[in-house]
Amino acid sequence: MANNNIPPSQSPPASVSDVSTEDPRQGNSGLLNGRIERLEQRSSHTMAQLTDLARVCSRRFQQLDEDIRALLGSNTSALVRGQLNLQADLYSRLGAQSDRIDDMEQMISTQLDRLERQTNNDWEAARKRHGQLTEDVELQRRQSQTQMALVDRLLLHFQNLWQSRSSSEVAAFTQRLEELEKAQEQSKRDLQSTRDAVAILEATVKVKDKQVEQLEKEMKELQVRLEEEETDP
Fold first, then answer.
1. Sequence-ordered list of residues with C-beta below 8 angstroms from that of 71, at least 6 positions apart, any chain
2. What start-end ranges are recorded for coiled-coil regions in this protein (predicted)?
3. Which terminal Cβ of the chain has fewer Cβ within 10 Å, N or C?
4. Can you say whether residue 165 is alpha, beta or left, with left for phi > 0 and alpha for psi between -120 and 50 degrees?
5. Distance between CA atoms of 108 and 215, rounded to whole angstroms?
6. How far apart are the first and last CA of the chain?
7. Are 20 and 118 in contact (CB under 8 A)?
């Protein structure tokens, strides 16, 4: 009989580094898209391995069929009946394995589709939110600069008034200065709130990264199970 050893599985192709040179706000989106591309590459590689296994099994069955036909041409001994039973058993195993391969392929495809849709939705919302937060921060910064410049002018004017000893005007500008200082403190608090919102958004992105890593782990475990079934007698 012909040599029916199954060729060893090849390791998956090395992943490509996802270094983005685009807008920094789109950096995390590029990383997630890169992870999705690597998952698709690994899935395609796994499907290619399963296809190769099916082809090898088909060649083995074809050779076995030819050997059985040759034996039938000479005699109908117990060995021939055993070969026939073995062939039927192997065909049954191949059918069951083919069904499992189809199920696993469908499961991987479904998981990738769901992850891609969820990632696209999350990043679209994050992109809009990040743009709005960036505009808010810039607005707060400009307002703070404007208020600081106004405070400087009022301080200079206050010094001039103090020198002229106009007590009523000094009191009025002192009150105005205190109000502006309070407004400046409120502006700082608003700016801090906006920065906190940005931090929350970044934490959400990290959670999505962990979900992608979990899916990669599950796919690795699935590939290990497939390799174990390939080597199972």
1. 77, 79, 80, 83
2. 170-232
3. C
4. left
5. 10
6. 19
7. no
- Give the whole-angstrom CA distance, residue 140 versus residue 144: 6
- CATH architecture type of domain 25-231: Up-down Bundle (1.20)
Full-model pTM: 0.29
Residue 186 in tokens: 């409120």
d(C-alpha 168, C-alpha 122), whole Å: 59
Per-residue model confidence as pLDDT tens for the chain (233 residues): 434 444 444 444 444 344 444 444 455 666 677 777 787 788 778 778 887 777 887 787 778 777 766 666 555 556 656 666 777 777 677 777 777 777 777 777 787 778 778 877 777 777 777 777 777 778 777 887 887 888 788 778 777 766 665 566 667 777 887 888 888 888 888 888 888 888 888 888 888 888 888 888 888 888 787 777 767 65
